[in-house]
User: Which sequence fits this backbone?
């Protein structure tokens, strides 16, 4: 018996850019240890596992090292896989049942729109010296965003030129660090990067879930509800962000680059 894993670049319309995820569509659940081994074998930032459940699909995400509670790009890739393979009709929406609650995805022309929970950002009174030292920059803002730190850097250029000490970042008691700044390009409202060495991923190419916090942060700071965001990793990607009360609409594109037959 074999299973097909779809390797999909998310938050891009060009192969070999954006954030790659492997998507494994199952007919029935599999045990956690098996899913973790497959994710380690694929060695991508996330491998998504889904199977039919309650009129939608159960969806879980694994890095090569651990399971995570929320992942944007692998959710986008999962929805793309279901439409591309004909499991869903083009005008169908899909509900994913996850550890972060139900997530709804819809087609919007060439884009996919995902309905995610907002992540409030709580300012920290003191910027930990270890954080500033590991990033090699002094933040103009630092706060808690769920399991992450969110840091505003002094400029777009500062974000792009960051060269963190990943060993030091991995020692911080957080899942990851979101670094952001206002964009210098008129195409985008803000730029960001995301570092998560504690989960086995030094830098994530494009992080949908981080934009749940970024949307909340930039809405409070500049008073807009809708943004076009650029994640400035080496692969890079574009995320549309719309803040709607306690929810955030994340928009992205995706392209399949390969399919892997897993001998099971």
Assistant:
């Amino acid at each position: 018996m074999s299973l097909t894993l779809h390797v999909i670049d998310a938050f891009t319309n060009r192969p070999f850019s954006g954030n790659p995820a492997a998507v494994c569509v199952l007919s029935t659940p599999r045990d956690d240890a098996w899913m973790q081994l497959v994710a380690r074998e694929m060695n991508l930032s996330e491998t998504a596992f889904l199977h039919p459940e309650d009129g939608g699909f159960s969806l879980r995400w694994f890095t090569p090292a651990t399971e995570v509670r929320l992942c944007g790009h692998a959710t986008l890739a999962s929805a793309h896989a279901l439409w591309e393979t004909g499991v869903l009709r083009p005008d169908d929406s899909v509900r994913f049942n996850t550890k972060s609650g139900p997530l709804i995805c819809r087609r919007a022309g060439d884009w996919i729109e995902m309905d995610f929970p907002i992540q409030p950002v709580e300012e920290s009174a003191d910027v930990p010296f270890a954080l500033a030292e590991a990033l090699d920059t002094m933040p103009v803002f630092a706060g808690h965003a769920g399991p992450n730190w969110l840091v505003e850097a002094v400029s777009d250029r500062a974000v792009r030129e960051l060269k963190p000490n990943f060993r030091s970042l991995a020692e911080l008691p957080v899942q990851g660090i979101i670094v952001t700044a206002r964009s210098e390009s008129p195409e985008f409202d803000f730029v960001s990067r995301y570092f998560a060495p504690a989960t086995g991923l030094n830098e994530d190419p494009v992080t949908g879930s981080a934009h749940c916090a970024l949307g909340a942060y930039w809405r409070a700071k500049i008073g807009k509800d809708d943004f076009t965001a650029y994640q400035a990793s080496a692969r890079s990607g574009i995320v549309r962000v719309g803040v709607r009360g306690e929810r955030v609409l994340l928009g992205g594109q995706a392209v399949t680059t390969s399919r892997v037959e897993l001998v099971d």
The two ends are 6 Å apart (CA to CA). The first strand starts at residue 2 and ends at 10. The chain has six helices and 18 strands. The mean pLDDT is 95.
